[in-house]
Amino acid sequence: MSTPAPPTSERRPAVVLLSGGLDSTTCLALARQQGFEPVALSFRYGQRHTVELDCARQVAEAAGVEHLVADIDLAAFGGSALVDDALEVPKHDDVAELAAEAAGDEIPITYVPARNTIFLSFAVAVAEVRGAADIFIGVNAVDYSGYPDCRPEFVAAFEEMANLATRAGVEGNRLTIHTPLISLTKAEIVQLGVGLGVDYSVTSTCYDPGPDGGACGRCDACLLRAKGFADAGVPDPTRYTAA
Amino acid sequence: MSTPAPPTSERRPAVVLLSGGLDSTTCLALARQQGFEPVALSFRYGQRHTVELDCARQVAEAAGVEHLVADIDLAAFGGSALVDDALEVPKHDDVAELAAEAAGDEIPITYVPARNTIFLSFAVAVAEVRGAADIFIGVNAVDYSGYPDCRPEFVAAFEEMANLATRAGVEGNRLTIHTPLISLTKAEIVQLGVGLGVDYSVTSTCYDPGPDGGACGRCDACLLRAKGFADAGVPDPTRYTAA
After folding, report:
1. Chain A: residue nearest B161 by CA?
2. Which pLDDT band holds residue B86 (cuts at 50, 70, 90)?
3. CATH node for A12-232
4. A73 and B70 in contact by Cβ < 8 A?
5. Which of B1, B16, B47, B65 has the fewest Cβ atoms surrounding its Cβ within 10 A?
């Protein structure tokens, strides 16, 4: 049995999926607080806007962690309002209207086919190359459970699969997919992040930012985020678009 | 209950992962023979050579099927002789030497971290957008079982995960990952393909083709392929490099 090389620090390596939004930014801060040395992983995947990648870069910089951006090509397959210009991002006047629609049990049009599956698969590749046994993803099943790939049963099945797919799994170094936010409300996530010193002003959550990069204030993500700050009793630092 | 629009043909849509090699080309022919109308899906993933993509294009054209090529960025993560210029592709003098090494239970250096996981994840996205419930992958666990993500237990776990990840799974249209070659020897695959009319002269299997695009004849993939033709009693149509 060979002795593994000691890490550059006492921290264990980890991969954190980072969109630059509120949830993944909180997740990154939490991974650091739990003693990990994270590599943040973002994707250029044919988003209609690049605001979130700019935010991810700023968030990683502020956290002092390495930031990888992988280019992938989801737009070519179409099928979601988030990557397909021909589909319109739904807007609502308030959270009550959104909640009524979400209760209809429909998968929202903003769902990107297999997105978390693809993102986690890349995270597994990075984890394997970097010798990390821990992957963090900020999925959340409470406020908005319309996406099938945000559910705990999906994450558990992914972890199982990943351990059969990889060298690490075969060699007995079990990979763990951490979802520390999965059962928190948006308000609880905000409170957690504020406690960890997260600066939410550099994060972006909006599905459809204005030309100035500001949040639209009316898409599902904006409404839930604003409600999170309100419920948490924390001033909302979001910069809304002037348009 | 709404009546689904009839397909453009009587064939059911499917996604077939196509590398342009012997196995995936046979898999494509088999999917067609089983009554599917496949979309072939290939990847530009930082391969050291593009011979296999040229072959995939020719194979898809010969089969008369639509061909998608997705750009992904595995090379940035490194970690495999197949995508990393700094690592050398292992060469052997004959199959016996290769077999002795493979029996050592080591995962070969040509293993690309999480590759099949990533490829299948993209196939799930395409399947979901195209309304296909069937994905074909030409993995094979007999001749060469060193890759963890070629094992039946990996494929079963992936299928389970995919059905929790997707709209199709949630709505009860179960996705199936077909691995028709998984328990066949290379010779049996060749015999199957010849029976289906596959022209293996346009396929490429080599891990390290020469500057003229010809096969090296000495990497693991070349040795197993040559043995497959020999064992099947079929003349080997492979074009070897002049170098």
Report:
1. A157
2. low
3. 3.40.50.620
4. yes
5. B1
